Structures are given as C-alpha cells and as structure tokens.
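Researcher: I'd like a structural prediction for the single chain below. Treat it as a standalone chain; there are no partners to consider.
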Amino acid sequence: MALDSSPVRRSRLLPQLVKFGAVGAVGFVVNLVVFNGLMLTVFSGVHHGTIYATVIATVVAIGTNWVGNRYWAFAAQRQSNTAREGVEFFIVSLAGMGIPLFCVWISHYVLGFTSLLADNIANNVIGLVLGTLFRFAFYRWWVFSPKRAARREANVPAARPNAATVTTTLPTSLSGTPDRGLIGD
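Model: Treating it as a single chain, here is the predicted structure.
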C-alpha cells in the first residue's frame, strides 16, 4: 500500500460516514418516536416496559436503517446475495441492539434511574453512541465488504466461454482496474 493512499482513503470514507450518519439520524428519530410513543401509551406503568419498548423501537429502527444503508450509504458495496446480506445486517443490528439494551438495564435496574429522561439518556445517548460505533465497524468490514463478495465470486467456478459468447467490456476506471470500494484501498 502506498503512503499516499491515506488521504484517498479518508476522502472516500468521509462521504460514507456522512451517509451512514444521515441514515442513523433517521433511525434515531424513528427509535425515539417509537420508544417514547410506547412508553407514554402501551407500556405506561408496565413492569419491564422500558425493556420492551427499547426492543420494539430498535427493531423498527433496524428496518428503517436496512433500507437506508443498503440502498444509499453502502450502495456501492452491497452484495448480490440480498438475503445473505440482509441476514448479516440484522445479526449485526440485533447484536448492536444489545448495547443500548444493556445501558438501559444498568441505568434502570442497577443504578435505579427510573425516570423517562434517564431511560432516554441510557438508550438514546450512551447506548446510541456505543451501538453506532459497533454497527458501523461491522457493516463496513463484514456485511457490506467488497472483499467478502469478491472472495465468494472467486470461489465460484466460471463457465468456460465459447467463441459465440465472448464479448468485450469497457474498463471500470481510467486505469482499467475495477474500483474495489472503500475496503479495497
């Protein structure tokens, strides 16, 4: 790897981080609205209502984030196997859900902070920051990794072309090499 690739890598990482952040902001609003809506209605006064509301709100936000990340933030790196990518996305997201859930549990049951404000801070501030770092890392280096997709495609034996089906293609970049995305730097 050349020494000058670092500025290139950063310049390609920044737009992806901005998109990921925008998708996350929408997911945050969805999570916040669903969580508080449930806490003020369905789970008002319900034992363990905070935990139930956290799980439901996070699952709804995961669905919203799946669409935004797949079709916008990581669109250039998405895999052709949508089902596998979706399963991996939900695995990472559910694992990431454990982080704010753990924060709410500590705040609510260990530290005894039982107000709606304390639950929101544990869930939507501390849990959100830690969960976001975890999810971005795993989305980027596992779920939407072009290296993984390229490895899987390389392991599939290619059919031997016959003379009638051979066609030429244009290069994918000026240098004639394919763009491997952020991961391939």
